[in-house]
Specification:
Elements (H helix, E strand, L loop, with lengths): L24 E5 L7 E7 L2 E10 L4 H5 L6 E8 L11 H4 L4 H17 L9 E10 L4 H22 L12 E9 L2 E4 L3 H6 L2 E8 L4 E8 L6 H28 L1
Parallel strand pairs: 4-5
Antiparallel strand pairs: 1-2, 2-3, 3-5, 6-7, 6-8, 8-9
Helix pairs in contact: 3-4, 4-6
Length: about 250
């Protein structure tokens, strides 16, 4: 069992943070001018471009099954130079790798939870998340940035009269937590992620509800008490991220 200790304010992490602290986070909105909504999220040394475009149609399966409203889909990729060793593009392998497929499906589920899809009308929102630089937490950064880009796109659709009612239900953000060296930590960087005995990703909305929990004991089991400590850290981090998103959208 991992035996996580209570959060100790004296613990110093590789980047100088306390156990309960997020890495610095910044949004550069309208980063991709041809997208309907976009942002570059810089989260510590992790950087992800999140762009949203809109197609005036819905997937074939929705038409065949007479499903009303719109749809949200997502794609995720790591650019070849985003890691220390070059990562080959998926196109050179002829298929999307399993990790990328898992993450883009997670992004899609998270963004669909943010909107009332019926209010979109018969259109598809495409969310593209491209990792420029990876230092842990690329999926949580992609989700947190994607929501900001999605909000910007919705504002544009409303301004253009393409939709008449705001479909946004709740804000959505994601963060990692883990147990490293018997210590519960918020927002793992790459060094911590690689050393984690227990690793979790939390996706939550602004109503305090869980959208998804991804957790595993990498090298150890974990108890109810340790799970509760990790969830408490994660919830506190999500609240900070939602505030950062709102501040970025207010500036936009």
């Amino acid at each position: 069992m991992a035996q996580a200790q209570p959060t100790d304010s004296s613990t110093i992490r590789p980047d100088g943070r306390q156990p309960h602290e997020l890495r610095p986070i910044r949004f550069q909105n309208h980063f991709a001018p041809h997208a309907t909504g976009s942002t570059l999220i810089e989260w510590g040394n992790t950087r992800v471009i999140c762009g949203v475009t809109v197609e005036e149609n819905v997937p074939r399966w929705m038409k065949e099954q007479n499903v009303t409203g719109g749809w949200i889909t997502a794609e995720y990729s790591m650019l070849p130079y985003s890691t220390l060793q070059r990562k080959a593009r998926d196109i050179t392998k002829g298929r999307i790798d399993g990790r990328s497929q898992e993450i883009q499906r997670l992004i899609g589920r998270a963004m669909r939870a943010a909107l009332d899809l019926d209010k979109l009308g018969s259109r598809t929102i495409c969310v593209d998340c491209d990792v420029l630089q990876a230092d842990g937490g690329t999926r949580t950064a992609a989700i947190t940035g994607a929501y900001v880009a999605l909000q910007l796109a919705i504002r544009k659709l409303l301004a253009e009269g393409k939709i008449t009612s705001n479909p946004v239900l709740h804000g959505v953000a994601a963060v990692s937590v883990g147990i490293v060296g018997s210590q519960a930590l918020l927002d793992l960087c790459y060094v911590e992620d690689a050393a984690a005995a227990v690793d979790f990703n939390l996706v939550m909305n602004s109503a305090g509800e869980f959208i998804e929990l991804q957790g595993t004991g990498e090298e150890a089991t974990f108890s109810d008490k340790e799970l509760a400590a990790l969830l408490a850290l994660g919830k506190a981090g999500i609240r900070q991220l939602l505030e950062a998103q709102e501040a970025a959208l207010a500036e936009a």
